[in-house]
Amino acid sequence: MILNSLNLINFKNYEEINFSFSDKINFFLGNNGAGKTNILDSIHYLSFSKSYFNHIDSLNIKTGESFFSISSLFKKSDISYKTYLAYERNKSKVIRVNDEVCDKFSSHIGKFPIIISTPMDSNLILGSAEMRRKFLDVLICQFDKVYLKNLILYKRLIKQRNTLLKQFFKKQYFSHEDIDIYDKKLLDSGSYIFDKRKEIIDLLKNKVLSYYNSISSYKEVVDIEYKSQLHNNSFSNLLLKNLEKDRFLCYTSSGVHRDDIDFSINNSSMKKTGSQGQQKSFVLALKFAEFELLKSMINFKPLFLIDDLFDKLDKKRVISIISFITKNDFGQIFITDTDLDRIKLIINEIDLDYKYFFIENNTINEKKITD
Question: Which of these, 43, 105, 12, lies nearest to 304 by C-alpha position?
Fold first, then answer.
C-alpha cells in the first residue's frame, strides 16, 4: 500500500499544506514543535478515524478556525482510493472513501493499515497494562473484523455489568438472573479475545527476538509472555468464583480486560533492568515484528510511521537500524527527526528512493539531501 499524496486544511498548526510522497522513505525534518509529528498524526487519522495523541477532535482544529480536513490518495494493488476526513466544530465527523460515506467508523479500521512508533512507545514497557492491551488490540483489529466486533461488544458488556453491580450495591439488592444474562454474553466474546491474543503473542515472540538481535549491537535474550487469568481457568468459573468479590468492589474483577504482557531481557524485567537504549531497541523490534505480522495477515505492506526514530539511541545503534531498514523491504516509511546532518549521513548509506521535507513556520520545503 502506498500513500501518494496528502492535503491538510486547518489541521493543528497547518492552515493548508500539501505533500507528494516517495514510495519508499520520507523524512520530515525540523525543530521540536515545528509540526512534524502532526503530519504522522494526520495519516493515523485516515487509518483509524481518530488522532493517535488526542482523541478529542475539536482540539485538533487550528486555533481560530471552525473545522479541519484531511484528504489523501492511497494506492493498493493498483487501485486508487481517494480518502477524505473532516470535522467541523459541534458537528459530526465525516469520512469518505471514493465518495462513499463511512456510516460506522469501526468499519473503516483495517482499510488503510499502519504501524506507528513514537517516543510514547516507552509506555509499553514502563506504563500500565491497559497500554499493552491496547497495543495488541490495535494490531489485531486491523486484520480481524470478528475480533474488533467482539472487543467492542465485550467492553460494552463489562461497562453494563459494572453499572448493574453498582446499582445492586446502592439498593442493597441482588439478582443472579440479571447478572447471569451479562455473564453468558461475556463468555463468547471474552473467550474469542483470549484465544486470539494468545495466538498473536505466540507469533510475535520469535519475531521480536530476531529483530532485536538484528538492530542491537548486543546479544541479549528478550521475550514476551502473555499474562491472563484465563490461562488456567475457564471464564465462566472465574466469573462465578469472583462474584462475591465483584459485588463488594462494584466492578468485574476477572476477564480479558485484566490481561497484561510481560517483556523481559535475559530473564529479568525489561522495565526494571533494561537500559534506555535496550528499551528503545526492544520497542523498535516489537514494532518491526508487528509490521511483519500485520503484513502476513493482510497480504500487502502497511505504512510504517516512525516519530523521532533516533531518540535515546547511540550512533552505532542508529547505523544498525538504518542498515536493517534498508536491507529489509518495509514498503513505504515516514520518519521524523530534528538533525539534518544525521539524515545526510544516513542517506549516504542507503540506496533507496527518498524525499525529505523541511518543516519551518508551518510550511514545507521539499528537497533532496544534496540540495
Answer: 43
For residue 365, the model assigns a pLDDT of: 74
How far does the chain reach from its first CA to its final CA, in angstroms?
A: 29
Question: How confident is the model over 109-136, as a mean pLDDT?
Answer: 94
Q: At what angle do helices 340-347 and 315-327 cross, to 10 degrees?
A: 50
Separation of alpha carbons 221 and 267, rounded Å: 8
Q: Identify the CA nearest to 259 among candidates 358, 342, 151, 355.
A: 151
Among residues 325, 253, 335, 263, the alpha carbon closest in space to that of 288 is found at 325
* 82-107 residue pLDDT tens: 999 999 998 989 999 998 999 889 99
Distances (CA, A) of 225 to 189, 198, 205, 219, 267: 22, 9, 8, 19, 11
Q: Is the pTM of this model over 0.85?
A: yes
What region, left, alpha or beta, does residue 16 occupy, with left being phi > 0 and alpha being psi -120 to 50 degrees?
Answer: beta
Interior/surface letters 297-321, b for 16+ CB within 10 angstroms, e for the rest: beeebbbbbbbbbbebbeeebbebb
